Automatic annotation (TrEMBL):
<feature type="domain" description="Thiolase C-terminal">
    <location>
        <begin position="277"/>
        <end position="393"/>
    </location>
</feature>
<dbReference type="InterPro" id="IPR016039">
    <property type="entry name" value="Thiolase-like"/>
</dbReference>
<feature type="domain" description="Thiolase N-terminal">
    <location>
        <begin position="14"/>
        <end position="238"/>
    </location>
</feature>
<dbReference type="GO" id="GO:0016747">
    <property type="term" value="F:acyltransferase activity, transferring groups other than amino-acyl groups"/>
</dbReference>
<dbReference type="InterPro" id="IPR036527">
    <property type="entry name" value="SCP2_sterol-bd_dom_sf"/>
</dbReference>
<dbReference type="GO" id="GO:0042759">
    <property type="term" value="P:long-chain fatty acid biosynthetic process"/>
</dbReference>
<keyword id="KW-0445">Lipid transport</keyword>
<dbReference type="GO" id="GO:0070538">
    <property type="term" value="F:oleic acid binding"/>
</dbReference>
<keyword id="KW-0808">Transferase</keyword>
<dbReference type="GO" id="GO:0032385">
    <property type="term" value="P:positive regulation of intracellular cholesterol transport"/>
</dbReference>
<dbReference type="InterPro" id="IPR020615">
    <property type="entry name" value="Thiolase_acyl_enz_int_AS"/>
</dbReference>
<dbReference type="GO" id="GO:0015485">
    <property type="term" value="F:cholesterol binding"/>
</dbReference>
<protein>
    <recommendedName>
        <fullName>propanoyl-CoA C-acyltransferase</fullName>
        <ecNumber>2.3.1.176</ecNumber>
    </recommendedName>
</protein>
<dbReference type="GO" id="GO:0005102">
    <property type="term" value="F:signaling receptor binding"/>
</dbReference>
<dbReference type="GO" id="GO:0006636">
    <property type="term" value="P:unsaturated fatty acid biosynthetic process"/>
</dbReference>
<dbReference type="Pfam" id="PF00108">
    <property type="entry name" value="Thiolase_N"/>
</dbReference>
<dbReference type="InterPro" id="IPR020616">
    <property type="entry name" value="Thiolase_N"/>
</dbReference>
Length: 540
């Protein structure tokens, strides 16, 4: 009689091949939409980015319990399994985690992870009920006689402020309120170049510290806002990547770990431990171990900065510095451009916004753009390895490491890529530039009206530049209100809306004056995503 040990098949490599997201907006804003529309935009952008049809997707992970409605409404009904996920603020990355597992184990070849959220105004004021995942946190605050000091009904805000205060006390006040304010200042500065960010305003450090106090030293510019928005990521196996020729854009998930609260989270009566420090630390440790990488190998990071206090604590949990030295890292400038890491180049939750179900997937999208070199003016030079940290109190955390899966293919692709964030001079020397200058003038005057009339995005590829040089103008008359900045011109004019049709795989766009542009190659979706909403962009 013979016996043999059963050995499981090796886990397969998994890649992110398409990402997309909406602009995050405040709840109740005029340009806020219902969640199926938000989810649809994010999902369609991810499919366009991957350049695959929805029929190629084998499974989907949706947010909360609304995935079917969102997907049916915008992407169609194909009979694929749709699984709804809810894990508090880490919902988006939990969907990503589950999608990766399906592909790793050979259950699926391609999975869409889709996250979205429609929030209420003032969501930070949610009271803790007997069904709340924060009951244990509330118990610790009570046992430490801290709850009676609270003037707010939000346990979430309480624990995050107390965690920062505890860090200051542990470090004999070497960690100061200015260090937390510097993080808020940094994230708002980063968001200026992110067209998807809820806020794109830059502030001085003094303005951050002097802004409205939310809880003691935590001011409103150090706290994440409530937000509406959606984000999506398409994950695929290596065989799928090769079948569809996606090597140039495939971002590999090198390692990924999900952790929930440990006994130390509550037994040690430490508010720092209670806000996810130990589970973040353990998840990061496992990722480093599985990937063979260290914090020194990382270039760019998106982490869960629901409050500035959380970001500083997470520096230490991720091993970017020794415990207690987060303030020193801030003082060195090792959390921004020119420093050791660029942390939250998107603006983070503090400035980009925090629609709970979408946050983890928006982080994934940002890091994929960074690794592909497609992040425009917020691009981290030479970014090769990225880390994502998404935390949900009550409690789960997901830490993920990324890099390009096929670097040689990606490098070759970039050398032929149209410039993602051109300067104003990109269109100089093109005969067609005169036409678009006229459009620019008209759009300044009536941009918002054209958005209401047209509701579409159009691309114009022109080959009349110096020496036969090509340029692509992208006109977004679907989003925004028609404003334009130094780099992008708003909206389209009614002179160019008389006939729009698809012909021979390209976009034929005609005007009553007989002008026509045939776009045989639709504009690169990543270039389009770097536009501010409602803008006309020229890439040369």
């Amino acid at each position: 009689m013979s016996s043999s040990l059963w050995e499981p098949a090796p886990l397969r490599r998994v890649f992110v091949v398409g990402v997309g997201m909406t602009k995050f907006v405040r709840p109740g804003a005029e340009n806020s939409r219902d969640y199926p529309d938000l989810a649809g935009e994010a999902g369609q952008k991810a499919l366009a980015d991957a350049q695959i049809p929805y029929s190629a997707v084998g499974q989907s992970r949706g947010d909360s319990t609304c995935g079917q409605r969102a997907i049916y409404h915008s992407l169609g009904m194909t009979g694929i399994p749709i699984i709804n996920v809810n894990n508090n603020c880490s919902t988006g990355s939990t969907a990503l985690f589950m999608a990766r597992q399906l592909i790793q184990g050979g259950v699926a070849e391609c999975v869409l992870a889709l996250g979205f959220e429609k929030m209420s105004k003032g969501s930070l004021g949610i009271k803790v009920s007997d069904l709340s995942p924060l009951l244990k946190h509330l118990g610790v605050l009570t046992s430490l006689s801290l709850l009676e000091l609270s003037a707010t009904p939000s346990c979430l805000l309480d624990v995050c402020w107390y965690a920062g205060k505890e860090h200051m006390e542990n470090m004999c006040m070497r960690t100061k309120i200015e260090h937390f304010a510097k993080i808020g200042w940094k994230n708002h500065k980063h968001s200026v170049n992110n067209p998807y960010s809820q806020f794109q305003d830059e502030y001085s450090l003094d303005e951050v510290m002097a802004s409205k106090k939310v809880f003691d030293f935590l001011t409103i510019l150090q706290c994440c806002p409530t937000s509406d928005g959606a984000a999506a990521a398409i994950l695929a196996s290596e065989a799928f990547v090769q079948k569809y020729g996606l090597q140039s854009k495939a971002v590999e998930i090198l390692a990924q770990e999900m952790m929930t609260d440990l006994p130390s989270s509550f037994e040690e009566k430490s508010v720092i431990k209670m806000v996810g420090f130990d589970m973040s630390k353990e998840a990061a440790r496992k990722c480093y171990e599985k990937s063979g990488l260290t914090p020194n190998d990382i270039d760019v990071i998106e982490l869960h900065d629901c409050f500035s206090t959380n970001e500083l604590l997470t520096y230490e949990a991720l091993g970017l510095c020794p415990e207690g030295q987060g303030a020193t890292l801030v003082d060195r400038g090792d959390n921004t451009y020119g420093g050791k890491w660029v942390i939250n180049p998107s603006g983070g939750l503090i400035s980009k916004g925090h629609p709970l179900g979408a946050t983890g997937l928006a982080q994934c999208a940002e890091l994929c753009w960074q690794l592909r070199g497609e992040a425009g003016r917020r691009q981290v030079p030479g970014a090769k390895v990225a880390l994502q940290h998404n935390l949900g109190l009550g409690g789960a955390v997901v830490v993920t490491l990324y890099k390009m899966g096929f670097p040689e293919a990606a490098s070759s692709f970039r050398t032929h890529q149209i410039e993602a964030a051109p300067t104003n001079s990109a269109s100089d020397g093109f005969k067609a530039n005169l036409v678009f200058k006229e459009i620019e003038k008209k759009l300044e005057e009536e941009g918002e009206q054209f958005v209401k009339k047209i509701g579409g995005i159009f691309a114009f590829k022109v080959k009349d530049g110096p020496g036969g040089k090509e340029a692509t103008w992208v006109v977004d008359v679907k989003n925004g209100k028609g404003s334009f900045g130094n780099d992008f011109i708003s909206r389209s004019t009614d002179k160019f809306t008389k006939a729009v049709s698809w012909e021979n795989g390209g976009l034929l766009y005609c005007s009553p004056k007989g002008l026509a542009f045939n776009v045989k190659e639709p504009v690169n979706s990543r270039e389009q995503e770097q536009m501010r909403p409602g803008m006309l962009k020229c890439s040369a």
